[in-house]
């Protein structure tokens, strides 16, 4: 008997003990641990019998057993890592779960492969049917995306944590025991509740809590009562569309929502008379220049304006302004401890002096305290000491507070893993003060960092837990997590500044990201000076107004994989250097103007042979000629606020030819979309079809049931859609059906019971839904139905056999979502 045989038995015994502990304590690795326990319990008597026989195995068979013994040793080391991994470190736990699955497959191959046949055939026979093993990770991702498990997994939990933090801030930030926000709130109320001032300001450095204070003012009962609940909040930002903002302000103040949300803005009527009793409070947040502010100020009786800015504007513009001070020492300690320890004071077992030193180095800036506190949560004392030392080596006191803040916030980025850090820096590619659709961000990370969607979601949750981004749920979703389609990402402008600051290190040509922080008339001069050499950037983000062919530089970008084009114009000439982007995989076009933009130079798409993801926002799609070259690698297309009447509405357009590998198609708020082209039913690669907020859509193609691989069908907020085609019942792979806010839909198709894989139906706000087809009772996989109270009784008979099937979300009456 070889020594290996003995150690294999010892290692397997120890590994079995660890796996039993993992199966009890680790949710992410439980399934793999349980399966490995089964394998090893079957292997132990086999190894024992080999040891007892005392026979030497042939050399080549002994080598096989040696390899297996090494696999067990690696498994034991992996099991120790799993048990020592903190539960809050989602990304690390996902990686460990993947390794556990890999170990499981290794052991199963040993059980089924030649080793079993040659080494163990005469001793013990093991039968394992791996084909019946459920693909756990894929199911977890699917459940998270569609919310089939009711809470959305990590993503739903992360959103709940954000909401809890927001509630905590609302309850505590203005009552931390010192001056700060409480004093500011009192003084601002005095200014706003008198007739003396029409324009009031809050000013202070970035990250000090100006927006938090402004939002507290908006929620104050005395303020709401004084202004008759007519309190409006509007974000201006560094690169505002003044015309659009003027239009929205006029609509808010006068109550004319049609004027406020129209495509074109009329001249601001500075003397519009709505009566002195019609009090209105308008909050203009994140104002950067006096010239922009002066264009947005209106003079209407009863209207007061609260301006939030880093600048103190002269009294001729802002009548009086309150400067928000830094937190007091006690306030700073309380805020930091909440995010670092989950309590309002320093724990008894913590090094009090060390904690106070770290708080001091955060310079009493709320955002720094929040982010750095979260980054140190659960870390060792040695880690804390290192953090304190690095903070103390930051910028000297002669530097501005903004620079100090960036330098201190950099610490929280340095402690991220390499992948998390890169994903955080990618956030600098998006416009400030705008919500980033989750789909854009996940696609971007998948393409850039060679990770799958599940790892991208894990990174997202990690960054959220460290307060480096905020997950925001659509206000219309109510209190229930429905799906990841209702989640977007928001980032504080200081954190965005930090991402850009860190990305702009090094020479322009060698940077991994070329980012324009704000909208400019043309491309940066720094880029122009280096245009003679190739740019190595993998991500390029350009923020301009209207661009003609002559406005572009001839840039050579051989490594660029993601291009983000933010612009504001009625017409836009696509950059000619798209021809020099052979590796481009994701193209994002976001038009911020008040009307849809017509694209020019669309022939460049023929050169984008590796393009996999395309996002168009507020674009008038061109007529697609019959000679259009197919985009053979394109897998995801998203059209938001687009006019597609000239392209997609054409019944003759051959979508399977143009996009032979398309798996996800999203159309949201699309203008003049009355019907989908019939050729969409021939797209056999399509897994997700989302047509939402399209008020002109009246019917779906009758052959929709031919989409045999379709898993997600979203038709939310299409008010003129009255029915689904009968063929929907043939969608045997369909997992998620969303017909919420289809206010004129009267019933589900009779054959819906044929959707054997359907896990979730969302039918909120469908008041015309009066009956259900009998076949719903035969949906074998149905686990969740989201509906209103009036509709839930239709499911009573089905729910008898499936308790808890229906979820009735709390109604949400806020109109805050209109601002987006």
From TrEMBL:
An example Gene Ontology molecular-function term: ADP binding
Gene that codes for this? LOC105166220
The name this protein carries in UniProt is Probable disease resistance protein At4g33300
Q: Which residues form the RPW8 domain?
A: 1-149
Tell me the InterPro entries matching this sequence: Apaf_helical, LRR_dom_sf, LRR_R13L4/SHOC2-like, NB-ARC, P-loop_NTPase, Powdery_mildew-R_dom, WH-like_DNA-bd_sf
Q: Which UniProt keywords apply?
A: Leucine-rich repeat, Plant defense, Repeat
Question: What processes in GO biological process is this protein linked to?
Answer: defense response
The UniProt entry's coiled-coil ranges are none
**Highest taxon of the source?**
Eukaryota
Family, as annotated: Belongs to the disease resistance NB-LRR family.
Entry-linked Gene3D superfamilies: Helical domain of apoptotic protease-activating factors, P-loop containing nucleotide triphosphate hydrolases, Ribonuclease Inhibitor, Winged helix-like DNA-binding domain superfamily/Winged helix DNA-binding domain
Task: Read off the Pfam families from this record.
Answer: LRR_14, NB-ARC, RPW8
